[in-house]
Amino acid sequence: MLLTLIGGIGIFLVGMALLTEGLKTAAGSALREVLRRFTGNRFAAVASGAAITALVQSSSATTLATIGFVSAGLLSFQGAVGVIFGANLGTTSTGWLVSTIGLKVSVSEWTLPLIGAGALFWLLAPGRRGAAGQALAGFGLIFVGIGTLQEGMGGLAERIDPGSFAGGGIGARFLLVGIGVVMTVVMQSSSAAIATTLAAVDSGAISLEEAAALAIGQNLGTTVTAGIAAIGATTAAKRTALAHVLFNAVTAVVALAALPAFVEAAEDTTGEGDPAMALAAFHTLFNLVGVVLLLPVLGTFAGVVARLVPERGPRYLADLDDAVATVPDLAIDAARRAAAAIGQAMLYAAADLARGVPPRATAEAAAAIEPLTRFIERVDPGSDPATRQQYASLLHAVDHLHRLAGLVAERRPPLVPAAVFPRRSAMLAAQLESLAAAFGDAGQLRAVLPETAEAARRFAHWRESRRRRLINEAAAPRAAPGVVETVAQDVRAWRRRLFGAPGPRPPETAATPPQPGLVERLDTMLWMARVVYHGWRLAAHLDAIASGERAAAAPPEPD
């Protein structure tokens, strides 16, 4: 019996994992687009969270996407809280799926063909069709797991004494809530825990009220996983996790305090002869009551959470989080924003150096490049061609960011471009500042790309032609020092005869700065050409990520 139960839970978990992963991959960026478009107000945010969670059968997927959008600034934290409310409501759809189909319909005749067809598509079909096959196989495995759970629960009913939880005492309720929390934590899935409880109540192993107390604990148990996932995460992730914890805690307190009334309402809704459907209704009902209670004070609720978790940590790394790294679309977008912010700081500092003024501080930005690189290495772009192309552009962007930071670090006074090529340095500084200002807006960045590309071409051409001229001048034959002195003496004698004795020579000033030599001039020109080149290529690849297009080919780096 116990082995059958464990096997049923395992099959159900595998099915849920395949279904969730397959749907996320098959949907592509649809999850992101829905959240972007339909979270304009609190009601739309709740509806979006519920619908997406019901679709992908994973509140975790919805929560991760929400964290990414809060970090991106595409979704306010208040809107994110609404999505979290909806995700808790949407996750109750699993109970309805199990109670209406899994426990009522004999699926043995069609689940195995469904699993077989889905597995074939998963293994043989490319891209999103393969992901759809993965989801299909997972869907079939869910019902195989439910059938196995029913089989195991049939024997369990004879071994559990319902009298040990009888009377509805507060101690017994708290014990059942605790058991429900442990079930979710151990299974790492509230859906699997709810499915197990539904199978138990359907077989008569436990009463409806006992199952309801377990469901409260299982709903609360999801917050343990969320809390653990938020340890060491970004501020946005911690706030979202805390909102999840507080919402579930409030609903648990309300449901536990009015447990008999909720159970009676659920039975009235579904009929007394079907405890499994009544439990599914109870699960939805107390989450719905939580939404109704907290939605009117959503702004206050979000404000309390924001005050409890203030903003901390390096601002350049605020969007980077291990949880976000598991969702390629969100991870690439978060890394793009971080690279843009760091690149902007480097370009402003390079513009200051070109002008010959003290550069703006870049220590924090430079220190963030290595953590950004490690974050990108943890991202798996998957098999989707568009995502892989964006990931390749991200790798190129970070490479140019590294080189740009190196150029800023190596160029320090007095060997600054303004002391060697004043006019060209002013042009370079203006171009770099124009490019840096556009890094905060994708549309503006695309607009300045053509002029930046032209500037990079002009500086490369100027540097090459000027380099040849300087080298040729340095290699040209020169008059011997003795000949030069003889000519100078003859000129002075001729001037004395013509104009009389010359006046005293003006005193030489010791403050005359030394003129840069050939090597310094060549090095400065190379620095100028490289700075604008890497700034341009960084911008081009960041634009390619944002637009989903391939960055245009470029000439090699000036050397």
From TrEMBL:
<feature type="transmembrane region" description="Helical">
    <location>
        <begin position="107"/>
        <end position="125"/>
    </location>
</feature>
<feature type="transmembrane region" description="Helical">
    <location>
        <begin position="170"/>
        <end position="187"/>
    </location>
</feature>
<keyword id="KW-1003">Cell membrane</keyword>
<feature type="transmembrane region" description="Helical">
    <location>
        <begin position="132"/>
        <end position="150"/>
    </location>
</feature>
<dbReference type="GO" id="GO:0044341">
    <property type="term" value="P:sodium-dependent phosphate transport"/>
</dbReference>
<protein>
    <submittedName>
        <fullName>Phosphate:Na+ symporter</fullName>
    </submittedName>
</protein>
<dbReference type="InterPro" id="IPR004633">
    <property type="entry name" value="NaPi_cotrn-rel/YqeW-like"/>
</dbReference>
<dbReference type="Pfam" id="PF02690">
    <property type="entry name" value="Na_Pi_cotrans"/>
</dbReference>
<feature type="region of interest" description="Disordered">
    <location>
        <begin position="498"/>
        <end position="517"/>
    </location>
</feature>
<feature type="transmembrane region" description="Helical">
    <location>
        <begin position="245"/>
        <end position="263"/>
    </location>
</feature>
<feature type="transmembrane region" description="Helical">
    <location>
        <begin position="38"/>
        <end position="56"/>
    </location>
</feature>
<keyword id="KW-1133">Transmembrane helix</keyword>
<keyword id="KW-0472">Membrane</keyword>
<feature type="transmembrane region" description="Helical">
    <location>
        <begin position="283"/>
        <end position="306"/>
    </location>
</feature>
<dbReference type="InterPro" id="IPR003841">
    <property type="entry name" value="Na/Pi_transpt"/>
</dbReference>
<keyword id="KW-0812">Transmembrane</keyword>
<dbReference type="GO" id="GO:0005436">
    <property type="term" value="F:sodium:phosphate symporter activity"/>
</dbReference>
<dbReference type="GO" id="GO:0005886">
    <property type="term" value="C:plasma membrane"/>
</dbReference>
